[in-house]
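Trying the structure run again after the queue cleared.
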Amino acid sequence: MPRAPRNSSLPSTSCAESVASNPPKANTPATSLLRQRSVGFAVHEFAHGPGERNYGTVAAESLGIEPDRVFKTLLASVEGLAPPGVAVGIVPVSRQLSLKELAHAVGGKRAQMCDPAVAQRITGYVVGGISPFGQKKLLPTAIDESCHRYGTIFVSGGKRGLEIEIAPDDLIDVLNAAVAPISVAR
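Done. Tokens:
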């Protein structure tokens, strides 16, 4: 049975009930995976401009939530990992990924950001819509420890303009993610 998020800002229905009312257009590999795993979540859509590059910031503003609750999904090449040698870092949009801390969190030596084209090829998602869920392959993943400040957080739902609201512990469980201080101030 899915558990409802703690201290949720969702309506009075549980996340699981919100899933049932999600429109079909919310079907992405990310939402399909969460439904398959019976994980409670809610889908939120927002409008974004065609030339927009700060998707997470736009999501926070459009949905009326604080930027620290919206997390971006970033990919980095990490020396010392098994092929393809790429890891996922999930950090608040208000902060920046620490490549050194990400490498440490996933058991690597050094890291550098992936080229956007590589990130798209590895995940199957377009930049601005890369979800930590439903990627082509489950990659070593770390999420910033600040995720535990909130009952629910927001991550990309697998396309631009679509956010998934989920309890941090559910995200951590589904992704087998390490929790570590992987973000730094901008």
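Residues 1-24 have pLDDT under 50 and may be disordered. Worth checking whether this holds up in the mutant runs.
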